[in-house]
Amino acid sequence: MGSSARFTQGSLFKLVLEKGSEIKIPEEPSEPSGTLPMNLAPVHMELLVDTIDSEIGSIFIISDGESLCALDYADYADRMRTLLTTRYGSFRLTPALDPAGVSSQLRAYLQGHYAALDPIAVNPGGTAFQRQVWSALRDIPPGVTVSYGELAAKLGKATAYRAVGMANSLNPVAIVIPCHRVIGANAALTGYAGGLERKRWLLKHEGVDVTQMTGHPSGGHSPQNLHPHLV
Closest Cα partner for 155 from 118, 173, 129, 176? Predict the structure, then answer.
């Protein structure tokens, strides 16, 4: 393998699963945008990576060996890389089968066994406030949705729905920390970092009636633009 590999949609999961391959992602890549340098040092963190296929695309599972650190979609690998780099600086992704059992548990969830996600230990990093929001997200059961305002009120910060929305948008552990269960008032989907169609699919998978739900036109999180009638 050469000194760098193309970082294009769907390519990372093929690359990391190649036997014996290792990926190093520096804090400030010196390669052109869209390229993953492979031989830069130092590496500050060793992480394990697995991928699974699903109806909503290939999914990356990143673990420190004990807890789930990140879960994202293959076509959002740049976002995942940015969040991991912000947290760890430089790190190496090493392929692993079913790290900490998360791959098996995620497959079970996708087959309809929603409780399979409950025992998964997560280590998402973040600020104290972000961790508070992310912890509250895990208290929302499958098949239930809440608004940004309701979530903020639950945290005792009823007027902080924009801050809650921002924390929601920076969640590094999709599905397991279920930010897809947060919607706007009046059944507005409002956005999802993995795309509105995935949010709609996940909610429908969990038994939510999504037929009357409307989506934010941008398809992504826009917490800074949330209007009170949406919360």
Answer: 129
pLDDT digits (tens, 9 = 90+) for 30-62: 444 443 344 444 567 999 999 999 999 999 999
Strands 59-63 and 23-25, by their bridges, are unpaired
Q: Which has the closest alpha carbon to 151: 133, 171, 166?
A: 133
Walk across the sheet containing 91-95 and list its strands: 23-25, 91-95, 46-52, 59-63, 68-73
Please answer whether residues 190 and 216 qualify as being in contact, where contact means their C-beta atoms are separated by less than 8 angstroms.
yes
* 179 classed as catalytic: yes
Distances in whole angstroms, Cα of residue 119 to Cα of each of 14, 32, 68, 162: 28, 40, 11, 30
Of the candidates 179, 183, 189, 203, the residue annotated as catalytic is 179
> Which pLDDT belongs to residue 44?
78
Size of the chain, expressed as the number of residues it contains? 231
List the helix and strand counts (H, then E) for the chain. Answer: 7, 9
Classify strands 68-73 and 35-37 as parallel, antiparallel or unpaired.
Answer: unpaired
> Which pLDDT does position 42 carry in this prediction?
59
In single-letter form, the type of residue at position 40 comes to L
DSSP state of 61: E
User: How far is C-alpha 100 from the geometric centre of its chain's CA atoms?
Assistant: 17
